[in-house]
Amino acid sequence: MGVSLKDIAQRAGVSLATVSNVVNGYRPVGERTRQRVQQAVDELGYTPNLSARHLRRGRTGLIALAIPELTNPYFAELADMAIREAAGLGYTLLMENTAAERGEELTLLDGAQRHIIDGLILSPVAIGREEVLARRARMPLVLIGEGVYDVPYDHVAIDNVAASRTATAHLVALGRRRIAFVGAPPGDDRQSAHLRIRGYREALAVAGIPFDLRLVASTEQFGRADGEHAMRHLLTLDSPPDAVLAYNDLTAIGALRALTRAGVRVPDDVAVVGIDDIEEGRFSNPTLTTVAPDKREIGRSAVRRLVARIEGEQGPPTHLQPAFHLVERESTGPRPSVAPRRRIRGYRG
Amino acid sequence: MGVSLKDIAQRAGVSLATVSNVVNGYRPVGERTRQRVQQAVDELGYTPNLSARHLRRGRTGLIALAIPELTNPYFAELADMAIREAAGLGYTLLMENTAAERGEELTLLDGAQRHIIDGLILSPVAIGREEVLARRARMPLVLIGEGVYDVPYDHVAIDNVAASRTATAHLVALGRRRIAFVGAPPGDDRQSAHLRIRGYREALAVAGIPFDLRLVASTEQFGRADGEHAMRHLLTLDSPPDAVLAYNDLTAIGALRALTRAGVRVPDDVAVVGIDDIEEGRFSNPTLTTVAPDKREIGRSAVRRLVARIEGEQGPPTHLQPAFHLVERESTGPRPSVAPRRRIRGYRG
DNA sequence: TCCGGGCTCTATAACGTTATACGGATCGCC
DNA sequence: GGCGATCCGTATAACGTTATAGAGCCCGGA
Q1: What's the CATH number where B10 sits?
Q2: Nearest C-alpha of chain B: how many angstroms from A55?
Q3: Residue A111: which domain range?
Q4: CA–CA gap between residue B211 and residue B204 (Å, rounded)
């Protein structure tokens, strides 16, 4: 069907191997021949058949990024970075959606896609340390995010304890005392939110504020709807919170929605902080204060580690902690800037 | 490295071809042999080498979905649907980010990825009809979205004229007269917004409202920031709009942000409608009225058409128009429901 | 004159799979 | 009992690439 090496070889009057060498630059080729081959390649519009190449080489040039939710902007933004980095290194990045399901994550871990991808970047949320340790597949693996630690694989994640400590400390510094946490995991402690809760507790302890379990609202997942429900619950408490740290920006936005809907003023009555710095939070009403991880660095590092392993790097697993910083916006602002800037003329009513 | 057909054949004491037939079910195999082979497969944990299979079959089982922005929730939600459908049909969907760049779109069109994907679903935004017509690659192609029409390829998109007509008519029905359009393309008419503007004009004409060019704000792209800038501009007009139809939900959300920031009440002073029905609009403040295309149907149809073509379907190109419907929320609500539902006790200040 | 040794280039054997053509049973039927 | 038809399997040739071994050739040195 397509143009193959053989066609080029024929046209240029050389052998298959020579064409291959011109295309790959694996072995030197004489200048005259090189040019003749190159011309044939251009004329016929040859592109290598990757299946064949990969069959021969044993590698496919594809890597997968498995994330719990395609529709979570945090992961979309992260994937964006990762795709660019992968392309720069000559790899194509495939996105896999685990839907935060245990089965999906395990399947990927054990290499269902073996032979189609050279390596996997996984953000585990439904599986724990033991499952990762039990994995049999030898395909290179890099973990990202706060799901699983202490396993013999490269790992890239911000310091989640420090991140939530920073966010909580910010609320404390604003004079808030009843600080709630929205988006705790529903039960076991294998999950990520654990670390974020730890940071939250640490910051409270430093400030001398007693930890109040009633202010911790757990959620099934970490989407907008979950944050909204949790916040609604918190508003029913006898003495509701005056601030909220959310597990991530999405739950924070859900919380904002619940607050607005209930007529609670943000930040006047309740201040809100999220984690992730998704673009949505820069345009929400009010805009969202958040902890911004260096997504670019996370995406790049994860891809780089993986590619290094694929290309044979040995050595002990590395654990990278990209930087993060607090971004102050209206949801914790000293004063919301919602007052009209200037008079608008011409409205009805 | 991995377990291959040969290993299975050896262990089960049969030929390669028989193992292949068991695995594929291409030709019937006797029950006894079948079981023996199956057992060997299970014991050794065999998974077919896809590169080899694809080399032989001439197909890879990979299809690509090329979208202008990974981080646009509309496309993320669409991709989510498409991935599921593709998986159900035995294909793996690869996401490509064109970044709305002409070069990227052309490269994909001309089959840079030839040999790695069997077909392409493309949402063109930077290229026009001529470029699509000029394409040489023979790989199956399905177009989605409102970018390019009248080309000999399968196409899936809602009726954009009708969608924006519906949205505009809704604003008219609410008694609005100065209805602005946010998110017109920056100049030429090759682009999609053209159709949406046409629907907008049609609805105005039906209502007997004169078209006012000053109320059409063009933007470079169609993100939140673009909507915000455009809206800010509209607010400087001598007689500003009392309603806004935005090109999509993202620009609508940008507009909401600009309005809130300027102290303009939504929907009291200005009503806002978007198109896309992204989840974000269900949680924004105020929540966003929008035209909801049947994303599930768009994703499914596009994948199905593509797979049909890959598997040899001939016949004239089809043009599918999935359904859409208007979703009324607070941003056009007769009365915003932001009043407190019940008294919240316990706030400071 | 002959030989070792760079250079270029070629011939060919894999890589793991599937499709085709064929071989040998077994069966039904005259 | 002979004959075609029907099963069930097998042997083998691709698919397009790359790595390996080696073939010519030219050159400098003995």
Answers
A1: 1.10.260.40
A2: 5
A3: 62-158+296-322
A4: 7
- Residue A343: band (very low, low, confident or very high) from pLDDT cuts 50, 70, 90: very low
Whether residue A138 is found in the same domain as residue A169: no
The nearest alpha carbon in chain B to A78 belongs to B71
- Are B105 and B176 part of one and the same domain? no
Cβ neighbours, 10 Å, residue A217? 25
Chain A residue numbers with beta carbons less than 8 Å from the beta carbon of B341 are 261-263
* Residue B132, in any domain of the structure: yes
As ranges, strand D nucleotides with an atom below 7 A of a protein CB are 7-21
- Separation CA B253–CA B276 (nearest Å): 12
pLDDT at position A348: 36
Is residue A241 less than 8 Å (CB to CB) from chain B? no
Longest dimension (CA), chain B: 87
A47 at B interface, C-beta within 8 A? yes
Find the residue in A nearest to B347 (Cα).
Answer: A269
Q: How confident is the model at residue B345 (pLDDT cuts 50, 70, 90)?
A: very low
Q: Is the pLDDT of residue A272 over 50?
A: yes
Sequential DSSP letters for B128-181: -HHHHHT----S-EEEESSS--SSSSEEE---HHHHHHHHHHHHHHTT---EEE
Distance CA B86, CA A14 (A): 42
Total domains in chain B come to 3
Q: Output the distance from B56 CA to D13 C1' rounded to whole Å.
A: 12
Is the shortest CB-to-strand distance from A14 to strand C under 7 Å?
A: yes
Q: Is B264 on the interface with A (CB under 8 A)?
A: yes
Cα–Cα distance list, B123 to A37, B95, B108, B119, B276 (Å): 36, 12, 11, 13, 15
Nearest-CA distance from B71 to chain A in Å?
5
Residue A236 at interface with chain B, using a CB cutoff of 8 Å: no
Q: pLDDT, tens digit, for every residue of B245-303?
A: 999 999 999 999 999 999 999 999 999 999 999 999 999 999 999 999 999 999 999 99
> Quick one: A191 and A264 in the same domain?
yes
Q: How far is CA B82 from the centre of its chain?
A: 9
> What is the CA A53 to C1' C9 distance in angstroms?
21
A161-202 pLDDT, tens digit per residue, is 999 999 999 999 999 999 999 998 776 544 445 889 999 999
Query: CA B138, B144, B149, B154: dihedral to nearest 10 degrees?
Result: 50
A321 or A148: which leads in pLDDT: A321
Query: Cβ contacts of residue A343 below 8 Å, gap of 6+?
Result: none
Does an H or E element contain B333, and which?
Answer: none
Q: How far apart are CA B54 and CA B25, in angstroms?
A: 17
Look at residue B8 and give its three-state secondary structure.
helix
Question: What confidence score (pLDDT) does residue B242 get?
Answer: 97
Decide if B333 is inside a domain.
no
What are the distances in angstroms from CA B46 to CA A226, B43, B142?
41, 8, 35
* DSSP line for B237-305: SSS--SEEEESSHHHHHHHHHHHHHTT--TTTT-EEEEES--THHHHSSSPPEEEEE-HHHHHHHHHHH
Whether residue A123 is found in the same domain as residue A210: no
Tokens for A261, please give them. 């809907």
pLDDT given for residue A51 in this prediction: 86
